[in-house]
TrEMBL record:
GO terms for molecular function: transmembrane transporter activity. The keyword S-adenosyl-L-methionine does not apply. It comes from Corynebacterium yudongzhengii. Keywords: Cell membrane, Membrane, Transmembrane, Transmembrane helix, Transport. This is MFS transporter. The chain crosses the membrane at residues 24-43, 55-76, 88-107, 113-136, 148-167, 179-198, 227-248, 260-278, 290-308, 314-333, 354-374, 380-399. Its main location: membrane.
Length: 405
């Protein structure tokens, strides 16, 4: 992940219209679908897990936090490893390994085993978000990169959605073990198809890396105030976002008497994030990234307060605003990383993703304690107070007009 340039004699990047380009784009779409469905496979069934395994909501939420926490801890090391071993070997091994391990999850005899296996699954899955975009950036021609990158991002969004919707729907006719097995079996098949389709690497060249050089690169980013602020936005923003989705199912069942299958439909709100991410990019070009990021943070905070009102319609409206605003803020913030970090961009992007998933794990785990102690009103109030950190930071960056505004 150094700034070393690829040799000039490397083959030309794949162009749109070539069979290998289509295979690469399709393989990355499937990779995003399979692995992100695996990562969030238990989120929609948290209320069911509390009853089936006789555990608290806090413990049930650890089946999500354990995975995202492991991804956070290993995404940077895996990214560095791919600089030495190659993108394809890491990508294939991680996709196959994470989805294959998923087939064992339904056999977990208790919550402790389930959480432990989910943590191991996160370690293995970290390789996909760590290297997928790097693979595309290296192997595809820059003029035709955008479409394939968009397909991968779409795959991650739809994968995360299907990882929640499919188990939730199956819970209407079966218990959590068959529902989880059905999902993970599909993701394993997807990983196999991805492995078959993925073209051979042609442009990768191993780089000489060392712990000291990588540590210096990472520390240099944390010393940059604007980058450190963006890392904080990723940590807190994603933490609050995942926390709400971890416990919205309990709210829907307890307050509005909905079934687990119907509760799973709230994850369709993720589609608003697909739309808002694309719109945020266009609006950023017109009004500036800082302004759109700040607006996303403010609207996310407003949507969160609507969730506190004991009315189903207002709850759904609030969740829609909350979700769309989060993805608009996140996509804009992540886009600023590459502009502000003029050197060691790969390390900067990996650090942003590490904070993103670490926030999901740490804040998502602590949120369970808050939810158990103070129930929904106290949970929302606490989340809103924590989210003020994001709102304030985003507005401060906008006022300062940092690079990449």
């Amino acid at each position: 992940m150094s700034a070393t340039e690829l040799p000039d004699d490397r083959p030309a990047g794949l162009r749109r219209g070539e069979p290998a380009y289509k295979r690469a784009a399709t393989a990355m779409l499937i990779a995003g679908l399979a692995v992100f469905a695996t990562m969030y496979a238990t989120q929609a069934m948290l209320p069911v897990l509390t009853g089936e395994l006789n555990i608290s909501p806090t413990t049930a939420a650890l089946t999500v936090s354990a995975t995202t926490g492991a991804v956070a801890l290993f995404i940077v090391p895996t990214s560095i490893l791919s600089e030495k071993l190659g993108r394809s070997p890491v990508l294939i091994a991680c996709a196959l390994g994470a989805t294959l391990l998923g087939l064992i999850l339904p056999l977990a005899p208790n919550a402790e085993w389930l959480i432990a296996l989910r943590f191991v699954q996160g370690i293995i899955a970290a390789g996909v978000p760590a290297v997928a975009m790097a693979w595309l950036s290296e192997e595809l021609h820059q003029d035709d990169l955008g479409r394939a990158m968009g397909l991968y991002v779409a795959g991650t969004t739809v994968g995360g959605l299907s990882g929640r919707l499919l188990p939730a729907g199956l819970l209407e006719v079966t218990d959590w073990r068959p529902a989880l097995f059905a999902l993970t079996a599909l993701t394993f098949v997807g990983a196999i198809v991805m492995t078959i389709l993925l073209p051979k690497q042609r442009r990768f060249r191993p780089k000489r890396i060392s712990f000291s050089s990588e540590a210096r690169a990472v520390l240099s980013h944390w010393r940059h105030p604007h980058l450190a602020a963006l890392f904080s936005i990723a940590f807190v923003g994603m933490g609050v976002f995942v926390s709400v989705y971890n416990f919205i199912g309990f709210r829907m069942i307890d307050a509005f008497d909905l079934s687990p299958g119907l509760v799973g439909l709230v994850f369709l709100m993720y589609l608003s994030g697909t739309w808002s991410s694309a719109r945020a990019g266009a609006l950023s070009d017109k009004y500036g990234r800082g302004l759109i990021m700040s607006a996303g943070a403010v609207f996310m905070w407003c949507g969160l307060w609507l969730l506190a009102i004991p009315n189903l319609v207002l709850t759904l409206v609030g969740l829609l605003i909350f979700t769309a605003s989060f993805f608009a803020m996140h996509s804009t913030a992540s886009g600023r990383i590459g502009v502000i970090a003029t050197q060691h961009r790969a390390e900067a992007s990996s650090m942003y993703l590490m904070c993103y998933y670490l926030g999901s794990s740490v804040i998502g785990g602590i949120a369970g304690l808050v939810f158990t102690a103070f129930h929904w009103p106290g949970f929302i109030t606490t989340a809103a107070v924590v989210l003020l950190v994001v709102v304030g930071t985003a507005i401060a960056l906008q006022v300062q007009r940092s690079p990449g505004h």
